[in-house]
Each structure stands twice: as C-alpha cells, then as structure tokens.
Amino acid sequence: RKDLLDIASLQREEIELLLDQSTAFKKLLTSSGKKVPVLEGKSVLMLFYEPSTRTHSSFEVAAKRLSAEVTNFNVAHSSITKGESVRETVETLQAMRTDYLIVRHSRSGLPGLIARQTKAAVINAGDGAHEHPTQALLDAFTIKEKFSDPRGKKVLIIGDVLHSRVARSTSTLLQKLGVEVAFLGPGSLVPKYGPATICRFTNYQQAMAWAPDVVYLLRVQMERQDVQFFPSLREYHRIYGITNTRLEEIRQRGLYIMHPGPVNRGVELCDAVMDYERSLINNQAENGIAVRMAVLDWLTPGGDLPKPEPAYATR
Ligand code: CP
C-alpha cells in the first residue's frame, strides 16, 4: 500500500497486521527506547492545516524513532497565507522528493486528492468530519491491550458523532474486529450512517442499560457546531457528560473510559475521570507512537497512485 487514507478500505488482515506490528514497536520502545534504522534515508513531511498536539507530536516521534528525517511545514508562515493552493504547495513539496506526507486538513477527502498527485506515501492525520485512521488504530490497539480478544465487547461512543472523524473511523474499525458499537448523543448529532447493527441512543440511562464495556467520549467540537442547535456546555455535561455521580456508577461496574483528546474538562467529563483507575486516556496518547511507527513501516512510498474519486460518504 502507498497510502493510509481511511479505515473503510482496510481489510481485517491488514488491521491485524498493523496491530501486531504496533505490539512489536511498543515492546521495542519500552525495552530500549533506541532508534531503529527502518526509515533511514527517508524523509517525512508534516503538513498540518489544522491544530494538533497528539497526532502531530506522536507522528514526529514515531518517524524519528524509525530514523527518518522529519520536516514540519509551517502553514502559518508559508505561501499559503499569500493564497497558494494546496495543489501548488504539494507540487512544490513533491519537487523536494518527500517520501511520506502526513496531512491534516478541515476538508474531507483532501488527503486522498493529494495522494493522487504525488508518489509520496500519504497518511491522513484527520480530514474534516471524514476519517482519522491512525486514531482508530490506536484506539483498537488500546482496547486490545485490555481485552486480548475484543470480539463481542461493547463500546458506547458518546457525543457529537455527526461531526466526528474519530467516531467514524473508530466505529468502523471496531466493527471490523467484531466489537459491538453504539452511539449516544443529541438526536441531531447521531447520524444514521453505518450498519443497522449500530444501536443509537439519545438517553444516557438507556445507553448504559445496553451494558457497555468501554465508554468512549468524543470531544465537543464547538468549531464545527451550529450553536443554534447545540445545548449549552453546562447542559451538555448534565445530559451526556460523565459527572461525578455517573463516574461512581462507572467505577462500580468496572467500565473503561476513553477519549481521543483534547479533553474539555467539565463538558465531556468531570476532573475526577483523569484520576480514574480505568481511564485509558493516557494509554491512548502513549500508544499513538507505536501505532504510527507501524503505519510508517507498513506503507511503501513510490507505489501505484490511488484510483480516481474514492467514494466519500456524504452526510
Ligand atoms: N486525537 C487527536 O487527533 O488529537 P490532536 O488534535 O491533539 O492531534
């Protein structure tokens, strides 16, 4: 494979391979922490048009651990601010013979468009409300660390599913691994996409009666909301958030809590969740490095360009 653009097109065997490789890289990181020469002589360019802490820094660490040369393309100080298009930017960068392009953009499908213009391996680091494939892989990896066979386990994804590329990628991947997925959120923000096997709830108690093993909270993305239709943040916390009272119930039931970050404390969850013994939020951040090492190692720059016009689902 030249690119990683989505989860939808990955075969189960490819996912299993990537998760096994992530285990090997995590062992390597925790045992020696030394660089390995897997990408020696290769160059990785980070092209982030939207802010990022976890994805950006873990890709950078992952690439450096694999001995690649990493360049951060600073969008704010580039000719993009003078109106240069993404196409011209990519052509310019291509002339510099980059091997891997890691792209985050607010436009769904943009990494796919770039992948068809360049021989570099393109990795989607989050495109609009479309996909965030490496987040899904690290989520699945984190769940597999707790349940070695996750088949039949239940993951309840809470929040603004409609605008969430994480919800789309993670729910798709978990289902490919045989995990049951349900969505909970305001009716207008829980879309109908995905197979009929996905349960959709608007009521917290009813969703918890579904008996999840993992409660996965999505970040409230105010930057993508039509505020007219969104409850106040205080209301959101009361209706869908993990309050102190709900955390106590979650603790008694022994459920795991996940969140892709960044967390809006007091909105998706109360402060006490950060100290909850079954919170996997820090595990997710840590696992991002091993998983992204596995992805970089797996892709082959210079391979066939992807076929035109992949089918991006519209909402
Ligand atoms: N989960 C995630 O994508 O976080 P960042 O926006 O910090 O990269």
From TrEMBL:
L-aspartate binds at K82, R165, R219. Transmembrane segments: none annotated. Carbamoyl phosphate binds at R54, T55, R104, H132, Q135, G261, P262. Its EC number is 2.1.3.2. The keyword Oxidoreductase does not apply. Residues 2-145 form the Aspartate/ornithine carbamoyltransferase carbamoyl-P binding domain. Catalyzes the condensation of carbamoyl phosphate and aspartate to form carbamoyl aspartate and inorganic phosphate, the committed step in the de novo pyrimidine nucleotide biosynthesis pathway. Heterododecamer (2C3:3R2) of six catalytic PyrB chains organized as two trimers (C3), and six regulatory PyrI chains organized as three dimers (R2). GO terms for biological process: 'de novo' pyrimidine nucleobase biosynthetic process; 'de novo' UMP biosynthetic process; amino acid metabolic process. It comes from Hymenobacter elongatus. Belongs to the aspartate/ornithine carbamoyltransferase superfamily. ATCase family. Pathway: Pyrimidine metabolism; UMP biosynthesis via de novo pathway; (S)-dihydroorotate from bicarbonate: step 2/3. This is Aspartate carbamoyltransferase. Signal peptide: none annotated. Keywords: Pyrimidine biosynthesis, Transferase. The keyword Transferase applies. Residues 152-299 form the Aspartate/ornithine carbamoyltransferase Asp/Orn-binding domain. InterPro entries: Asp/Orn_carbamoyltranf_P-bd (IPR006132), Asp/Orn_carbamoylTrfase (IPR006130), Asp/Orn_carbamoylTrfase_sf (IPR036901), Asp_carbamoyltransf (IPR002082), Asp_carbamoyltransf_Asp/Orn-bd (IPR006131). One of its GO terms (molecular function) is aspartate carbamoyltransferase activity. One of its GO terms (cellular component) is cytosol. It catalyses: carbamoyl phosphate + L-aspartate = N-carbamoyl-L-aspartate + phosphate + H(+). It is an enzyme of class 2 (transferase). SUPFAM superfamilies: Aspartate/ornithine carbamoyltransferase.
